[in-house]
Amino acid sequence: MTVKPPRRGRKLLLAGLSLPLFFGLASLDWRPAADEVPPRIVSAASRTGILLAGAGKAEIRLPADATLAGYRPFGRMARDAGRPVYVRSLLLEVGGLRTAIVSAELMTLPSSLAAGITERLRAEGAGCGIVAATHTHSGPGGYDREALPQAVGVGRYDDEVERAILDAASASLAAARAELAPAELRIGEDLAGLGSNRDRPESPSDDRLTVVRLDRPAGGRIAEVGRYSAHPTLLSRFVGPSGDWPGAFMSRVEEEGGVAILLQGAAGDARAAVGRTPPIDADDPIERFAAGLATRLGDVPLLEVHAPVALGCAEAEVALPAPDLGSMVPWPLGRVVSNAASLVAPTRAPITALRLDDLVLLAVPGEPTFGAALAGESGVSASGLRGRTVSLAGAYVGYAPLPADVDDRVFSSRYAWFGPGLAGRLARGQSAAAEALLARPDPEDLQNDRPDDPRTPGGSPEQPGR
């Protein structure tokens, strides 16, 4: 007589035999091939001449039950009231070429939201521009349509939140267009001494404070753009919505008049070093850091750029590597989750290069570390201009550490959705966009009347810091 094992025992035996088979199959690389191809240039245009500028600012009027982004899966609710958050816009125009810089007080900028803002940007006559998030970790959530970001920390998608952000973008751009008029341009840069490297404390972070100031010829501030790198994680996790230190910084700068815009530099490994700020009568670390950075910004030596001013904008697109989440999860699960992520991961990412005189802003859709940013800027620097990385622009594809950082499993590598291959592809995209922007344009595209422009026959390259 044959004795059969109990039904429950058979199920456990079957499961025990199936698990090794499942993990064996899952450990194989099922990801689609993601071979690198040369970056694709989407558009590029340049002009030189008289500079026009206009700036605008509009509050994001959120629904009362809006979640907060950051820190917790599926978002979180605020326990204490925060501060208003805004979208700020700057329109720039030379010789009929109009570009824009749009900054939203958000943690990230998904491609769907970036596309909506870009559509509104083009409705105001700007064919190309930088659309970026300040990276506040206490801003509104609910603006990302993709399931994975919602689960990771942005919160459940809410079309009212998305509509509020787009309405604010429209209002700020319309205000900027209404103010378009001749402008005086000043540019400068200095080290702020207010950041530290959270991946490798013995190494520098991107401490470069880049400043663009625009004034009316008859007097009066139009806008001031500050580019600096430090994670906005100073606010209590239960207060919001809030712009964290970027919001407080912009508000302080706006006390001098005009609209202030904060762009994140190489934010991947940068931490705000509150202890290095000058002493002020405030216990709030946000106000201390904002006041310290605003003071540093006011001290940066600026040089006036006389007409004709060079203005240009180029858009490129890079193919992304296959998802590689091995640094984000325990070793046995790396291939499994990478395979799963490949089903929903984006395959291409945008890069924007915006030139304003000798400054070329190189906007990428992630969070590069300082080393990765320097690699992307090197091509522009070799041309005699000043390339500076802007993070969190146009989309969001996670952190971009160098391969050595991924090997060492530093903090930034834990959020590198595309592993060690992303930084190089973004850097090559930055170089391609800059090359397209700085290449000699067709005669019908540019009537160059600037004798010292490197594109002019016999002209000499501009020197950094002019």
Automatic annotation (TrEMBL):
Domain of life: Bacteria
Protein name: Neutral/alkaline non-lysosomal ceramidase N-terminal domain-containing protein
Organism: Vulgatibacter incomptus
Positions of region (Disordered): 438-466
Record field: compositional bias (Basic and acidic residues): 441-455
Pfam families given in the database record: Ceramidase_alk
Domain Neutral/alkaline non-lysosomal ceramidase N-terminal: 53-198
